[in-house]
Amino acid sequence: MTTQATKLAVPGPLLALGNILRFLMKSPTSAFGLLVISVLIVVAVFAPWIAPYGPYAQDLNNTLAAPGGAHVFGTDELGRDIFSRLVYGTRITLTIIFLVSIVVGPIGLFVGTTAGYLGGKYDTVMMRITDIFLSFPSLILSLAFVAALGPSLNNAIIAIALTSWPPIARLARAETLTFRSADYVAAARLQGASTSRIVIKSIVPMCLPSVLIRLTLNMATVILTAAGLGFLGLGAQPPVPEWGAMIAMGRRYMIDSWWLVTFPGFAILLVGLAFNLLGDGLRDALDPKQMNRR
Amino acid sequence: MSKNSKTAGWGSALAVSPAKKIRRPFNWRSLMSQLFTVAVTLFGLLVLTFVIGRMMPSDPVRAIVGEDATRETYEMVFRQLGLDRPLWEQFFIYLRDVLTGNFGVSIRTGQPVITDILHVLPATIELATFAILIGATLGVSLGVLAAVNKDRWPDHVVRVFSLMGHSMPIFWTGMIGLLVFYAALGWVGGSGRMADFYIGLVDERTGFLLIDSALAQDWEVFRSALNHLILPASILGYSSSAYITRMTRSFMLDQINQEYITTARVKGLSRRQTIWRHAFLNIRVQLVTIVALAYGSLLEGAVLIETVFAWPGFGQYLTNNMLIGDMNAVMTCVLIVGVIFITLNLISDMLYRIFDPRTR
Q1: Could you tell me if A132 lies within 8 Å of chain B, comparing CB atoms?
Q2: Which keywords does this Swiss-Prot/TrEMBL entry list (chain B) (predicted)?
Q3: Contact list, B172 vs chain A (CB under 8 Å)
Q4: Which chain B residue is nearest to residue A247, measuring alpha carbons?
Q5: Reported ipTM
Q6: Contact between chains at B52 and A145 (C-beta distance less than 8 A)
Q7: A272–B168: do the CB atoms touch at under 8 Å?
Q8: For chain A, what is the domain count?
Q9: Is B101 exposed, middle or buried (0-12, 13-18, 19+ CB in 10 A)?
């Protein structure tokens, strides 16, 4: 494992990335995931050019119009174009994923690597805290945090971040335990490197691949939790075109106007599936055992 | 590994046989240390719910005395609730209350929170149990199918199918299910636990509607209840099967790649026999622990699915109280979910210790 990982790191990060990409493209499922996520990013960046209408543009003469004609996915109860709202919604989805990941990744890495490297009482205390957070299903804990902080998109992001670092910390700790007695760490220690230097320079880079996979897999859960909070009215508040909130609003008109809930749901499903497939592929790509076999 | 441990069933792992003479005494020390861990986790849980409860923006005093109470009344209730004391003292009062089973009164229903919760819990347990039966059956069979056909098309199909279940927003699946199977096809019942017509016809004895109606021998209500249960339970089960499928597949692959499987094949056993009688028997213990964990995470989906199906259970109680900021009720719900989760973890760990000979 150690030798493989160093081999990956030697040709430089860019080359490694190229290798990973090439590996991912070989599997149709992860290629599909990668494609959907690329499309998602492109759509989010160019939203104003792609969406035919504004996300908040109402047309009260044309409410609940069925899909087709000028409105590909129909209009909602205020005559807003559902397709355009979905397009702008990609920005919200990506923002949530991005913010949660840049908070969760470093926290998880910090807690996990320090606990694993230092061991002892610090390790015990940190892992107990992690266990307490892990003893809740993440949605329930996020619900509790949002209830405490008040419903809004920002608070939903904070709540999700607060609840999703423990698995990362666990993973980083497990990885650290396998590296801490490795020869190269001992060598660094003998050269007089400080604890923080060893953790940052020698341990964290080795944990990064698996943490990144875990973060990718986590993104699907983040999307679903955010949508769930939006659906319960605890996340993004209307009229923000967040997909979960759109489904919640469309629920009242569901029986006669199926398109109000169907399309946002498909969007969530597609993006969630894409992240899951990509994470799955990444796991295979960065697992040295798999790499040799294929 | 001896051949004995492979073919031994549940029974023989427990029975006292000559081979068991070398069995070491039950490991009390590790059990005690585990119970200690559980106690620490429970304590942490209480700290967490306490902190979240104090963070609540809603004013618990206002919620009781109303908007136009005098300053004196307000301060009296403020003191009654113990809010004038230092935070650590408040925490110990909270701790004492919880340990003596006093979880406070729900502002919305005016009843003790624990009474409310015990009333709604059976509905959720009924739903979750049905769901896990569906999820485990689906997950285990798909997982074995995928493992046996690794890297061939059934494996890919199973992978996408189970990842779909994992990626679906469950509240949306519920709505689409209602649209298709209830509104369009009329195959299943709609919202609630039974048709409105039957509500109150059956005495509530256990709170489990299927059991209650069977006890009363009211088969019409029974059928209505089953009709309403099947859709939400299937959707929950499908979403939980993703995890079970994945774990079954990887456990199975671990076994299939071992030499004893090759040996069994060389001895002339059929493929089917090696898969089911050897490999599968060896992963049962792991599967039971996985299913126990999956049961816990069903609670999460239950919160959302109950909202969609107007299922009068724990999840609906939690969300309703959350939306009006009923602190006591919400925190007790969160605490109970945590306790259920920890208990399931403990049970799955115990099962592992008891049934897996290697852990002795």
Answers
A1: yes
A2: Cell membrane, Membrane, Transmembrane, Transmembrane helix, Transport
A3: 247, 261, 264-265, 268-269
A4: B172
A5: 0.84
A6: yes
A7: yes
A8: 1
A9: exposed
User: pLDDT tens digits, residue range A194-252?
Assistant: 888 988 888 888 888 888 888 888 888 899 999 999 998 888 888 889 999 999 988 88
Residue A6 counted as domain residue: no
CB contact under 8 A, A220 and B303: no
CB contact under 8 A, B172 and A224: no
Put simply, the answer to whether B167 touches A273 (Cβ < 8 Å) is: yes
| CATH number reported for the structural domain that contains residue A252 in this entry | 1.10.3720.10
Distances (CA, A) of A242 to A37, A81, B323: 17, 14, 19
State the residue range of the domain holding A192.
50-64+73-293
In a domain, A116, yes or no: yes
Q: Take residue B73 and report the two structure tokens written for it.
A: 């009344």
The whole-angstrom distance between A2's CA and the closest CA on chain B is 22
Cβ atoms within 10 Å, residue B110: 8
Chain A residue with the nearest C-alpha to that of B342: A135
A166 touches chain B (CB under 8 A): no
Q: How many CB atoms lie within 10 A of CB B123?
A: 24
Which structure tokens are listed for A40? 């998602």
B114-359 is classed CATH 1.10.3720.10: yes
Determine, yes or no, domain membership for A175.
yes
Q: Are A284 and A31 in contact (CB under 8 A)?
A: no
Low-confidence ranges of chain B (pLDDT < 70): 1-27, 56-60, 62-66, 356-360
Alpha helices in chain A (DSSP H): 2-9, 13-26, 28-45, 47-50, 82-118, 120-134, 138-149, 153-164, 166-179, 183-190, 195-197, 204-231, 243-250, 259-286, 288-293
Nearest CA in chain A to B306: A232
Residue of A nearest to B308 (CA): A251
A42 lies in some domain: no
Q: How far is B357 from chain A (nearest CA, A)?
A: 25
Q: Each residue of B225-249: pLDDT tens digit?
A: 888 899 999 999 999 998 899 889 9
